[in-house]
Amino acid sequence: MSEHAVTYSGDGAVARITINRGERLNRLDADIVAGLESAWRRFMATDAHRVAVLCGAGERAFTAGADLRAVPHDLYRAIPGVGVAVDKPVVAAVRGWCVGGGMVLTTMADILIAADDARFSYPEVKVGFSGGLIATLASRIPHKVAMELLLLGETIDAQRAYEVGYVNRVVAADALDATALDWATRIAACAPLPSRMLKRFVAEVIPKGPTEVAGIARAQVERINASEDWVEGRAAFFEKRAPRFEGK
């Protein structure tokens, strides 16, 4: 991961994935997108970790959204379930600001624990830009509330987010890490096969926006284009021999 823009550590069966740019409010850029993509792949490849806790370094922000000086236009790569197929449970822990692409990340989490100082905002209409991944918000909270957030670009606090069903639990800031770990540990103690199956089934039930659908398709195509089989297929073609595909 790019100079630890995102860190990955383990606590028993729980992985901790941290957006690690607290000094700049964890603003999203290409390094963080690459780091999150790598972290989700590591999470899925590590049998010992059954649940992930996603958080941001520092006390001021989970993430203040995209770095407007270096907007990552491939954010989909960083999103679990879009850029990387993730069927293990994900718990998001939010303190301070959760803005823009941060809300995409927390929307795609399965459980959301918020500190009482958390603030949620999706202000793309105020800067004249949108990637569209947030459209799925309208299938996760009441439609009118989602449109209030998206069309006004204003902020809701942790209590309001809890009241509309976006947040599972609001806790004191100093209890955030322990509470998120407790939830993740309790999920990890349950049978992993039905947990993962239920997450996959729920993903089939929840409607997906056009950017999300496109991101899922693009990620799958790019995986094939980067595969060893594609290298072998081209080599076999030019060497005029039968290819030896291994599904890698």
Quick recap:
The chain has helices at 30-45, 101-108, 124-127, 143-152, 158-163, 176-188, 192-205, 210-225, 228-239, and strands spanning 6-11, 14-19, 51-56, 61-63, 90-94, 97-99, 111-115, 119-121, 155-157, 169-171.
List the helices and strands and how they pair.
Elements lengths: L5 E6 L2 E6 L10 H16 L5 E6 L4 E3 L26 E5 L2 E3 L1 H8 L2 E5 L3 E3 L2 H4 L15 H10 L2 E3 H6 L5 E3 L4 H13 L3 H14 L4 H16 L2 H12 L9
Q: What is the name of the CATH class of the largest domain?
A: Alpha Beta
Strand order of the largest sheet: 1-2-3-5-7-10
Bin the strand percentage: 15-25%
Categorize the overall geometry. Answer: globular
What is the second-level CATH architecture of the largest domain? Answer: Alpha-Beta Complex
Tell me the number of structural domains.
2
The average pLDDT is 95
Strand and helix order: EEHEEEEHEEHHEHEHHHH
Structural descriptors:
40% helix, 248 residues, Lyase 2-enoyl-coa Hydratase, Chain  A, domain 2, 2 domains, 9 helices, 6-stranded mixed β-sheet
Task: Provide structural commentary.
This protein has 248 residues and is of the alpha/beta class. It folds into 2 domains: 205 residues, 2-enoyl-CoA Hydratase, Chain A, domain 1, CATH 3.90.226; 40 residues, Lyase 2-enoyl-coa Hydratase, Chain  A, domain 2 (Orthogonal Bundle). 40% of the residues lie in helices and 17% in strands. It contains 9 helices and 10 strands. Strands 1-2-3-5-7-10 form a 6-stranded mixed beta sheet, sandwiched between helices. It has a 4-stranded mixed beta sheet with strand order 4-6-8-9. A hairpin with a 2-residue loop joins strand 1 and strand 2. The chain is globular. The two termini are 22 Å apart. The mean pLDDT is 95.
